[in-house]
Amino acid sequence: MTIKLESLSKSYGKKPVLFDVNLEVPTGSFTMLRGVSGSGKSTLLNIIGGLEPATGGKVIIDNQDIDKIKGKKKANFYRHKIGFIFQGFYLQPQLTIGENIALMGFFAGIPKTERQKRAQKLAEELGIAEVLKQLPAKISGGQAERACVARAMFMQPEIILADEPTNNLDPANAKNTIEMLKKIQQETGTTMIIASHDSMVEEYATQIISIKNGHIIGETA
After folding, report:
1. Which helix (H) or strand (E) holds 210?
2. Could you tell me the sign of the dihedral formed by the alpha carbons of 46, 194, 56, 24, in that order?
């Protein structure tokens, strides 16, 4: 699913953080948004994912201008089209891993038995079936990252956005996570966009977009 950003800008009050961003992310790519902390890459990811609005410009996904989609239709669009892997996991501490994985299904009105079945299948595929009934505080960082990946995949989205997915992991688990995301992209054709300053991600990327001080300063494919 192709993503186009046209003259995109973002400010927080009087502080600009993104300037006239123009780029295209091809369908089925493994794209890295590369930049140091504070460069604007996470903000850009949040705008693509609908977590915050742009100040100016357009976000076009699957040939649809996102600003022209309103209300419940817009919420459903993001729920079904885009999965998000958050920096810092953001697993709900009071819910089991299985319930966390299936959370989007709950909001989408999917019956409980179907949610459980889908969560079980994803957990088996990602090697965390043994922790489905555990609370997040009882599992390892690598298992938590896999749970976040499973949660992002739950609605079978066409786009997965990952914000610094290796930040909280040791080198071995970081490498495993990126290889897992690459495998998902190759096997499902999902468009994968990863915001990261980890040079290891570059080895797997089909497109690298460099961001500095809110500006796109380079692109390689």
Report:
1. strand 207-212
2. negative
